[in-house]
Amino acid sequence: MKIIAKILTDNIFIYIYIDMEIINANGRNMNMLNKLLGERKAIVFFVAPWCGHCKQLEPTIDSLMGRFKNYKSPGLIARVEEKEIPKVSCDNEIRGYPTIRVLSHGKKLKDYEGPRDENSIANMLVKFFNEKATLKTQVDKEKEKKVKKKAKKKTKKKRKKKRIETKRKKKRKQQKKKRKQQKKNKTKTKLSKQKGGGKKYKKCLK
């Protein structure tokens, strides 16, 4: 267990860290769960094995527990099955399954009633446990995607511009070379004519 705190002992700062606690409730860890429920903010997933909606939510719960395992916040995320509910020391009156309950020191604050996709629940968890903390949610992914797309478009545009500029330079170079050659040919023709005219003049003199 780790705690986020800074303690001054004999003029020495000692840093202790508390991570998020992740618990799948059973007979062996119930005492620990109840202790943490009384001390911390908690999100508890109350599920039942016969419930179809619970079965659909299970992969999402597993994924969220994995994502928040090393989350730096003194909170608790727990999954409690129907048979274990009577042993849980918190507001545990459940009217339907699945119930995603938001608790603070064992007291119910509310039941989450928003969308049950992973990113929506993850956003709720982040806001509840630590507003300053961040997770890469779907919104973040979309923003990142847009930035990458924009950068790619900009690079593509830049490359296209460079290719056009290269073609223009090449064309200008060819045109310059052509004009130079034409000028050279013109000069040769002129000299040739002048030379021919001189011979003709000499012929006439004879």
Protein model, in words:
By secondary structure, the chain is of the alpha/beta class. It has two domains: 19-135, Glutaredoxin (3-Layer(aba) Sandwich), CATH 3.40.30; 136-206. Helices cover 51% and strands 19% of the residues. It has helices at 30-39, 52-67, 118-129, 138-205; strands spanning 5-9, 12-16, 21-24, 41-47, 75-81, 99-104, 107-111. The strands form two sheets. Strands 3-5-4-6-7 form a five-stranded mixed β-sheet, sandwiched between helices. Strands 1-2 form a two-stranded antiparallel sheet. The longest helix has 68 residues, at 138-205. The radius of gyration is 39 Å and the shape is rod-shaped. The N and C termini lie far apart (122 Å). Residues 1-17, 133-138 and 199-206 have low confidence and may be disordered.
Break the fold down into its secondary structure elements and pairings:
Elements: E1 5-9, E2 12-16, E3 21-24, H1 30-39, E4 41-47, H2 52-67, E5 75-81, E6 99-104, E7 107-111, H3 118-129, H4 138-205
The low-confidence runs, each spanning 5 or more residues with pLDDT under 50, are 1-17, 133-138, 199-206
- The outline comes out as rod-shaped
| Category from helices, strands and their pairing | alpha/beta
Number of domains: 2
Which topology of the largest domain does CATH recognise? Glutaredoxin
Helix coverage percent of residues? 40-55%
CATH class of the largest domain: Alpha Beta
